[in-house]
Structures are given as structure tokens and as C-alpha cells.
Design a protein that fits this description.
The complex is a heterodimer of chains A (219) and B (328). Chain A has 219 residues and is of the alpha/beta class. Chain A has a domain of 64 residues. Chain A has nine helices and nine strands. In chain A, helix 3 runs parallel beside helix 6 and helix 6 packs parallel to helix 7. Chain A is globular, with a radius of gyration of 17 Å. The two termini of chain A are 25 Å apart. Chain B is α/β, with parallel strands linked by helices and 328 residues long. In chain B, strands 6-7-8-3-9-10 form a six-stranded mixed sheet, sandwiched between helices. Classes of the chains: A alpha/beta (219), B alpha/beta (328). Chains A and B meet through helix 6, helix 7 and helix 8 of A and helix 7 and helix 10 of B.
Amino acid sequence: MLELRAVTAGYDRRAPVFRDAHLTVAPGEAVGLLGPSGCGKSTLARVAALLHRPDAGEVVLDGMPVRGFRHRAPREQRTTIGVVFQQPRLAADPRLRLTDLIAEPLRATGRRASAADRVAELADTVGLTPDLLGRRPHEVSDGQLQRACLARALALKPRWLVCDEMTAMLDASTTAALVRVVEDYRASTGAGLLSVGHDRTLLTRWCDRTVPWEAVAAG
Amino acid sequence: MTLVPLLSVRDLSVRFLLPGGRRVDVVSDASFDVAPGECLALIGESGCGKSVLASALLGLLPANARTAGHAHLGDLDLLTADERTLARAVRGRRIGLVPQSPAAHLTPVRTIRSHIEETVARLTGVRGRAARRKAAEQASLRAEFPLGHLDRHPHELSGGLAQRAATALALVGDAPLLLADEPTTGLDRDLVDRTVDELRRHVDDGHALLMITHDLAAAERIADRVAVMYAGRIVELADADAFFGSPGPRHPYSRGLLEALPERSFTPVPGLPPELGNLPAGCAFAPRCDRATDACAALPPFENTVACHHPVPADTSHAIRTPEDTRA
């Protein structure tokens, strides 16, 4: 289970973005979190992905309370979560070729030797052709870069995926393609998904259940 | 189309010349008209050449771009006009640009009032502080920008208000043609609806609007006609009602794009779009197309409303609305 218990978080302790949020994602379950722009759903996604330390409350991952966030998150917890952000341009180091971008989690966790094979496998999964892998982010389209970011999120075979507006910048066809990649991955691994967004039609079609922001947290 | 077009684009092509003699065909032979009181939505995947087409119309292409064809705005050809004419008589005065990501379009260290007053001073004959202030407030109201927010800086505005501020700037010069480049990217559905409804209001006031977008729902809400762009070419140009409703799109790519919507079959178009620097000689969509045959090795001419050797017959394509396809 990926659980948020009574989480309060924000960027100023005196004015948290949201208070007392409760959310549970069961293994293999796809949960869509629906909210308007600026409601704090991206902050919640960052907390769920262990990228932002909450002011209060706890995140419980497979029964283990999370003790540290961001770089202080224990590696065995951090690597069980894959994250995809809204804007691939801001989520990709402009100096890295796509192949290195995808391989980064593998190198960071000492899987350098097997990285080349795994990158080829991942590129095939997300539909990137070999000639695209040699390019840097400014040489590919938003859709192609987001494919690479999704491949990077899947590199360590996470048990949990957090997608924060993964498709907001993308056209309909690329959206459908990336959602299919996520769903194929979940079908073969049983991973759970938290998908955050504002598109009701999309999340309803994609997820097992969708929860409105008001049901999760107080502002 | 009984209306006299305001903007008439014929065989517009844009090529980028790259070091080493490489050439990228970003836009090829685009032809379309936009009339006053009409909205044409130009839709397609990111990277298909939509925004470059907009830049070409404004004379804002980088130095390594080469254009061909015509883009007549009244009696002026935008492609051959010199920079002086474009800067002094066209941008802001005859073409208003509603930009992508308005927050980035505005100057972060200045208030919205200062933006609008400067634009008023540059584009209109209004002189004197009090008159300029009044004109700026009128411009804000036309775009439904609340006067109480005029003294705020761009970072103090929500996405929707920043969008209205940018729209207010585009409307100051009372340009007959509005050009909106992805005006709804990153906004949530309610804001998208509000933004396109506001743009529609300006169309109904008599402006011509060319809206560039990959958001099909926004296009459906606002457009009178739809142009679908694929790999730099307009492959279909159709009436919006027929396109989104019945009988539906006729080009296989347009159909694929619509079918990819989550409210339809949510099935992606297989494969990736071709590289614009390495386009096939024939139909660029053929490698991804389930209707492709040997005929597709030749470039399909644009006939009637579609450029395809095997367009979907207009009378059978109503099946596209049925949601029984659950492969997604």
C-alpha cells in the first residue's frame, strides 16, 4: 500500500498548501486524483513520490513509515517509486542524450553494466527509435521527451508510479500511447498508480477509481 | 464560403537551412483562408510545423528560414513584406498575437497596467497620461481583465488572468486578424473553456481568428473550420461540425487523432511522426496508416477537403462515434 495519513504540506509552515490529506493506493490499483489548477495536487504528488517533506502526517510505503524525503529518503524506498512530471523540458537535464537520461537511475543505483540492454528494452517499450536515443532534449519534441521521461521512471521497475499531469502538454495520440505504456507496465508487474490531473474524462477512462481533491485534503 | 477572406494563404512553404547543407521542410504547400467572424483551428501533433507557420505569418522566422508561396492579408503579402512594414503596420495593428504561455510573454518586473499602457501608447493615437490610463482600462475590460488586478505583476496572476492580460494586449491595436498559438496549453478544463469562449466572443465581434492548438476539445468548442496538419502539410481542411460530429474526418490521420481521445477509443496512432528533415517522397503518413497501398508512394494531391489516396468515404465514417472499441 501507498498511504498518505493526515499529511499537511506546503512551502511555508504558517501557510500550508493543504492540510490533513488522506489517500490510499492499493497494489495494482490505479487511482486518479482530480483537482483544478493551483489546488495543491502537484505538491501532494511530490509528497507521495518522497520528493517533498510534509510538515505533518506520514507517508507509509508497503507498511513502512517513510522516515526521510528527497535525498534523505532511504534508497530501497525511493527506488520503489517512479515519477513522471508534467513538463518534460523541466524534468530533463538538457546536457544528457536521451539514452543517458533513461540510464541515469540505473547508473545511480550501480546497474551500469546492464544499463545499455535495459535502455534498449525501455526505449522499445515507450516507442522511441534508436536514432532518437542519441539526441539531446532540444533536438526532440515534447512528446518524444516525455516518452524518455516515462522510460526513465520505469527503469528500476518501480512498484508504484506517480504521474503528475503526465499528458497535459501532449496531443491526443501521444497521450493515448503513454497511458497504454503505463497500463501495459502495470498489467505485467502489478504496480500501483497515482495519477494526478485536471482532465476528468482522461482520468475516468484511465484509472480504476478517481477521487476529487475535496475528498482528499482540506485547503 | 461566401465571406471574403481576410487572410489568404497559398502554397506556403517554410524550409530551415542547417549547417552542412541539410534542409528541414517544416511547412509544405499550406493553403487556407480565414474570413472575418470566422475561426479556423489548425490542429496537429507537437512538432508538426504549426507554430512555425504562425511565425511565418508574423515575419518572426529565424534567419536561416526560407519561405515560398503567398500569405495575403488584404493587399499585403506577409511573406515578402519588409521588416519595417511588419513592425510598423502589421504586428499588433493588423495581426494580434495571443501567445502560448502568457506568463512567459509578459515582462516579470512590470505591472499589467504598465504593459497595456505602453501598448496603447505605441499602437494608438491616444496621448496624455489620463487618456492613456482610460484607454488601458477600456482595453482590459474588453478582455474581461478585472481592473482591480491591473497593478499586479505577472507572477501574482493565475494562469487564466495572465491569459486575459495577454489577450487584452492583443486586442489593443484593434487588429482584424487574431493569431492564437496554443492559448490553452497547461490550463485546466474550466479555464480552457473560459479562454476559448472569450476568444470566440472576439470572433463573433468580427475578428478573424487563426487558432493553433493540439487540444481537440478546445478546437471543437471554438472552431468553424478545422485544418489538420501532419508533417508540415495540411492533410485535411473541413467544416468543424462535420469533422467532430457526423460524418467525421476523412483523412486516416485525422481519424486516428480523434479516436485517440479518452472519450472515444483511447487508441494511439501507431508509430511516430516522421522527421521533418527526412520526409518520404510520398505520403508522410503512409508508414503509420492501415489504409496505405502502393499508391501512397506518390504524394497525394489536396482534393476537395483532404490530401489522401484512400480517404474514408464520407458516408460510412459516421461509425467513428461508436465507443464499442475497447482496446485501450
